[in-house]
Amino acid sequence: MQCNPNAALRTRRARLTITGMLIDALVFGAGLFAWTLVEYVIHGVLGHAHRTFVSGLHEVHHRDPRAVFALGAWIPVALLLTIAWVIFGASDGVIFFGGIVAGFAVYEVVHYRIHFSEPAFALEERLRARHLAHHFREPDAIFGVTTRLWDVVFGTEPDARTMRALAEYGADIAPLAGASNLGRLIGRG
């Protein structure tokens, strides 16, 4: 099978309509949403529930919360997205995967802010309190970092009364000082 070098160009041209761009936006949004489930599976299932290649990496973060960035994942993810774009162009699958990658980027920023910053708005305050409660009180629950949806769906969200107490505990934890693992890598800490 031979790869058509004009496939990416033709795919993009065909999508330069309002309908095509709307479909692209919906497919990208579906990828963003899919990220939330991927995040839950990586964190809750592969990082906590089972001993996998993720477990050891994740345990480092629990021992040192400054290790917030998944540094080893970005090169293969970027390489895969680039190769997919070159081979398949702006196909639905590549746009969907781009949404997942964008979700991963948002997760990285949110996760960093949870550990190193005072919350700037109410949603960030809730996400921060939940995640810090996971770290310090409930390591076998509250796996969602960017959403609680999958904790509710899969039953890893504590009951409402317990969750309120855990969130109050998490809200009282001060942001970290010093550099993250990325900051240490680039010499800023």
Overview of the molecule:
α5 crosses α6 (122-136). The longest helix has 32 residues, at 18-49. The model has no long low-confidence stretch (mean pLDDT 88). By secondary structure, the protein is mainly α. It has one domain. 70% of the residues lie in helices and 0% in strands. It has helices spanning 7-14, 18-49, 53-63, 71-88, 92-116, 122-136, 149-154, 160-171, 181-185.
Gist of the model:
The protein is an all-alpha fold and 189 residues long. The protein has helices at residues 7-14, 18-49, 53-63, 71-88, 92-116, 122-136, 149-154, 160-171, 181-185. It has one domain.
Features:
single chain, 189 residues, mainly alpha, 9 helices
| Poorly predicted residue ranges | none
> Per the principal axes of the C-alpha atoms, what is the gross shape?
globular
Structure annotation, total helices? 9
Tell me what portion of residues adopts beta-strand conformation: under 5%
Query: What kind of oligomer do you see?
Result: single chain
Question: How many E strands?
Answer: 0
- The whole-number mean of residue pLDDT values reads 88
**Mind telling me the C-alpha Rg?**
19 Å
Sheet of most strands: none
Which secondary-structure class do the elements indicate?
mainly alpha
Order of helices and strands: HHHHHHHHH
Tally of individual domains: 1
What is the helix fraction of residues, given as a range?
55-70%
The end-to-end span amounts to 51 Å
Q: What's the topology here?
A:
Layout: H1 7-14, H2 18-49, H3 53-63, H4 71-88, H5 92-116, H6 122-136, H7 149-154, H8 160-171, H9 181-185
Helix pairs in contact: 2-3, 2-5, 4-5, 5-6, 6-8
